[in-house]
Specification:
Length: about 250
C-alpha cells in the first residue's frame, strides 16, 4: 500500500487511480507520505545531477543506493499477465509470482528485487512488454526485425533475424532503450555486488593500491569501493583520474 502511493507520487499518477483502500490510507497519512516521497525524489535528483565518472564517485552514492531500487506492484503485474493469457498460481511466498502458461512454468518474478528468473538465469525487470517478449517463443513466421539495446550503454543493435534476437537476448539486451538513470543505477548495483565479501588482502597489487589511494583521499571502506578495486584488477577501469591537459 505504501509502495503504491510512493510509486504513484513519483510517477505523477493521480491518487484517485489507486485502489479505494489505498486512497483512504493516503488521506489519513498525507503529510507523512508527501514528506517521504519528497525526500526520496530530492535524493535521486541530487545523485543524478552530480553523477561523475565511475572512478570519481564517492561513498555517498553507494550508501544511498537503496533509493534506486523500486519494488514491483505484484497485484498489478498479476492482473496484466492474467489478461494476456498467463496463469499466476500462488506459491506461498508473498514476494514471488510464479508465471505459467498452458500448465507449464514460464518464469518466477521477484517483486522485492525487481527481477525475474527464466531457465535458471536472473534478469532485471524492464516492464510487462519486455518480460513477455522475452519469455514468449518467437517463430520465424512471426519474427520481425527490431532494435535491441545494451542495458549498460544504451546502444542499440538491430536484430535482423531470429538468431540475432536469441543471441542478444542471452547477452541481456532489452527491447526498450534504457534511460541514463537506469544505466547509472545498474552500474552502481553491479559494482556494489562485485565488492560484497571481498577481502582486501586477496586483491591484486593494483587493486590494493587503488583502495589505498581512495582511503588517503578520505573515502571509507565499503562494498562499492571494493567493487571498483576488483574492476581495476580486471582491467575494467584504470583506477586513476585522467590528467587535464594544460591550455597553451
Amino acid at each position: 500500500m505504501v509502495n503504491q502511493i510512493r510509486r504513484a507520487k513519483k510517477d505523477g499518477e493521480p491518487i484517485y487511480n489507486l485502489p479505494l483502500a489505498t486512497q483512504n490510507y493516503y488521506r489519513k497519512n498525507k503529510a507523512e507520505m508527501d514528506a517521504l516521497v519528497a525526500k526520496e525524489i530530492d535524493l535521486l535528483n541530487k545523485m543524478y545531477d552530480e553523477y561523475k565518472p565511475e572512478d570519481e564517485i564517492d561513498e555517498t552514492y553507494a550508501s544511498s543506493f537503496g533509493g534506486f531500487r523500486k519494488e514491483l506492484d505484484g497485484e498489478t503485474i498479476e492482473n496484466e499477465l492474467q489478461s494476456k493469457g498467463y496463469e499466476t498460481p500462488r506459491t506461498g511466498i508473498w514476494n514471488k509470482i510464479l508465471v505459467m502458461k498452458n500448465g507449464e512454468r514460464v518464469a518466477m518474478i521477484d517483486t522485492d528485487e525487481s527481477s525475474y528468473t527464466k531457465d535458471g538465469k536472473s534478469y532485471q525487470w524492464k516492464g510487462i512488454s519486455n518480460f513477455i517478449s522475452h519469455v514468449e517463443p518467437i517463430s520465424e513466421a512471426k519474427f520481425k526485425p527490431h532494435m535491441m539495446y545494451d542495458p549498460k550503454t544504451g546502444k542499440g543493435y538491430k536484430a535482423n533475424k531470429k538468431e540475432d534476437h536469441e543471441r542478444m537476448d542471452k547477452m541481456g539486451y532489452t527491447h526498450e532503450k534504457p534511460s541514463v538513470k537506469e544505466s547509472i543505477s545498474q552500474t552502481l548495483a553491479e559494482t556494489i555486488k562485485l565488492g560484497e565479501g571481498i577481502i582486501e588482502e586477496e586483491l591484486c597489487p593494483k587493486g590494493k593500491a587503488y583502495i589505498k589511494r581512495r582511503k588517503a583521499a578520505g573515502e571509507k571502506s565499503s562494498a562499492y569501493l571494493s567493487g571498483r578495486a576488483v574492476k581495476v584488477c580486471k582491467g575494467q577501469m584504470s583506477g586513476r583520474k585522467k590528467r587535464k591537459s594544460k591550455k597553451k
